[in-house]
Amino acid sequence: MTIEKKLMIEAMNARKMAYAPYSGFQVGAALLGKSGKIYRGCNIENAAYDPSNCAERTAFFKAVSEGERQFQSIAIVGGPKDGNLKLCPPCGVCRQVMAEFCDPEQFRVILGAGEKDYQIYLLKELLPLGFGKETM
Ligand code: THU
What we know:
The protein is 28% helix and 27% strand. It has 136 residues and is of the alpha+beta class.
């Protein structure tokens, strides 16, 4: 099995844990560290809305809090509860979090609607001219 397919399956499994009672839009992410370990994340919403967290950031914060700071790729899947998966490009805040820890020329973002139906983007395509530590 390719690593892309494995990450898509992990992301779909992560999505089952989504806590999204307000939007009804459930997202799952699977983040591959350079160590080879996979960190899953789901979106976690809140009655006060602002404290909600996206699936991608859940995965990144889990990984970084466990000591992993270098990453290869992330798969993301999303869709309405009880509906079909649809392409779920990461929000701007999540792209910025990716840029903090990942080389935009290397880090791969896998977006898809199923284990056989995905596209691969480099972070630099999703966050051109991003602000980062090199800028400061
Ligand atoms: N969401 C994510 O978890 N990741 C994305 O890439 C886009 C949006 C979540 C946030 C919120 O819980 C729900 O999807 C609807 O915006």
